[in-house]
Amino acid sequence: MGCICWTEPNSTHAFVLSVFSVIVTACAGIGGCVAYGVTGSSLMLCYGLENLVDFLSSVVVCWRFFSPGGTTSAHEADLRKREKRASLAISFILALLGIGVIVASIEDFTHGEETMANLRRIILTAVFSVIVFGTMTAIKFHYAKMLQSASMQKDAICSLLGTILSGSLFINSLIIMEESEAWWLDPLIALGCGTAALLIGLRSIYRAYVIQGIPVCNPKWWLTSQGDGTDEFTGRELTPEERGEFAEEKESEMVGPSGNGETNANNEERAGEEPESEIV
């Protein structure tokens, strides 16, 4: 038998993964921007910006799976009501990520080739990132499938783009060290990844706003929406239990008309008592 966090993940496991992702992406994002300030490497700027946007995506998923009350069916139903908003929020973040990567890749083109000292630092950073972000990407996609979570799936796409960018950063840095005229390969791949992220994000936003008629520009919807009764991952209708209706009915049955359950308790006590003899 494998680890339960892999074979039977729940909201708590997803939340822990997201917290780890928040910490890693925050460190990588800040580190990339600091490295850009020190070395002037536009590739490190692209790396830092991508991770900062990925950080926002992980924060949204943290909110989606945050359940201090536990992982009962009632809590799971409440968490599921956040899925639509979380998924759409990450769609906006994906679009933002795409714009940021496209801008950074254009900066790479205008900057030209990197110095040899910068390339060595970039290679070390890229190797670390491929291992860490590649692992997180695999786990996130697995959790998205097991938990039927579209928001986790989109967060996995953000991590996947980061892994691809880091991998291209590593490979292209090696190529550039041997053939400096090939410096344009990395910004070209980054431009492709940025375009893909932008299109994925805009497609989801268009589908929600135009086709489904969701008021994504209305702050009230973001604050009060309880979902649309469908599974964001598969599009199927949620069952009453998944919507939390059964849990509410059971709770109402446990509580009497007075609201504190005393009536039911009194009825049970009276049922167990023997009837008093009639006085003639």
TrEMBL record:
Of the GO CC terms on this record, one is: early endosome membrane
Question: What does the UniProt keyword field contain?
Answer: Cytoplasmic vesicle, Endosome, Membrane, Synapse, Transmembrane, Transmembrane helix, Zinc
Q: Where are the transmembrane segments?
A: 12-38, 86-106, 122-144, 156-176, 182-202
Give me the ranges of the annotated region Disordered: 231-280
Q: What is its main location?
A: membrane
Its membrane topology, per UniProt? Answer: Multi-pass membrane protein
The record's subcellular location field reads: Cytoplasmic vesicle, Secretory vesicle, Synaptic vesicle membrane; Early endosome membrane
What is stated as this protein's family in its record? Belongs to the TMEM163 family.
The UniProt record lists the Cation efflux protein transmembrane domain at 21-208
Q: What is this protein called?
A: Cation efflux protein transmembrane domain-containing protein
Annotated source species: Pseudictyota dubia
Q: Does the keyword Nucleotidyltransferase apply?
A: no
- Feature: compositional bias, Basic and acidic residues: 233-253
**GO MF terms held by the record:** monoatomic cation transmembrane transporter activity
Organism domain of life: Eukaryota
